[in-house]
Amino acid sequence: MWCRWLLRPPLSPGPRSPFRAQSALAQLKHVLEGELEGIRGAGTWKSERVITSKQGPHIHVEGSRGDILNFCANNYLGLSSHPEVIRAGLDALEKYGAGLSSVRFICGTQNIHKDLEEKIARFHQREEAILYASCFDANAGIFEALLTPEDAVLSDELNHASIIDGIRLCKANKYRYKHMDMQDLESKLQDAQKYRLRLVATDGAFSMDGDIAPLKEICNLSQKYKAIVFIDECHATGFLGPNGRGTDELLGVMDQVAVINSTLGKALGGAAGGYTTGPKALIDLLRQRSRPYLFSNSLPPAVVGCASRALDLLMESNAIAQSMAAKTTRFRSKMAAAGFTISGNNHPICPVMLGDARLASLMADDMLKKGIYVIGFSYPVVPKGKARIRVQISAVHSEEDIDRCVETFIEVGRKHGALP
Question: Is 114 a catalytic residue?
Answer without folding.
Answer: no
